Amino acid sequence: MACMWRLFWPGVAALAAAAAGLGLRALVLGALRRWGRTRNGWASFAEAIRLPSVLWVAVLAVWIGIEVASETARLPRRLSAELRVVFEALIIASVTLTVAGLVSTLIQHASDRRALGGPVSGLGQAVARGVVYVVGLLVLLDVLGVQITPILTALGVGGLAVALALQDTLSNLFAGIHLLVDRPIRVGDYVKIAGDIEGHVVDVGWRSTRVRMLQNNIVVVPNKKVAESVIVNYDLPEPRMALLVRVGVAYASDPDRVERVLVEEAQAAVGQVPGLLGDPPPFVRFIPGFGESSLDFTLICQVATFVDQYGVQHELRKRILRRFRAEGIEIPFPIRTVELRPPDGGRPAGGA
Model's pTM, two decimal places? Predict the structure, then answer.
């Protein structure tokens, strides 16, 4: 009873310190949220320290309580040692959570600014946080006096059974790590996976890759299937790509005139049609050449991204059609001549 009475004033001091710390925490977080107008500003920093700041308040309260107890009461040596261990454990936990949150926030900030060469997937951020958590856990176990070697041995023995039970999950996890390291796809890239899944990569997680198709639907693909399939990445080595527009004209048309008209229309559209690039300049090739009922040309121009090709083709074809009509250049219909012969092989009377 006497020991509990000796803890009265240290407890009051700890509670007062906790109340003051929580009030200060609320003011600081509110100010950071007001100052930060974007996800990459002070608001992101406030979100990163929201949970660790509670542990900071707990550390402050325990420290104040221990200091008051050492001044006003003579605590038993065992109780004092236990309080010191709790104090150190709270410090380690708060530092670990703070560093993990700040690392995740910094990676997200650098990802949005493309400072790391491009967006960072959720798996990359999870790996970074996991490394911080593992280091913090090892330090915490050492402070608590827990031997790490027997735990690692037990985990090694039990890990085999877990690996056998979670083969598919682990295969997707390691496939995700492979995608993270090798980087055949990146967040934001426009890709085609497994022959029929085509869209922008939203995220590469620990189990699956999410692709947003042009219809605004999300397709979830297991990482193992992504790693094993043939991937077409339309943003590598650069987003710019060549656009081929096939145009057929009548055999009576002048090829040089057709080429000039196509190049003029493509050059005039540069700067007016979103996504159409003027460098390198558009050009025309008489390819594939002689068709069944038309002279076939190919207009080659550059577009900024894969998705831009749809709008550019739409506008270019309308411009070309209007110009051909103004220039009197005919776009022919398919023509096929059929000759009917009698069974004896001779020519029929009255013509074919």
Answer: 0.59
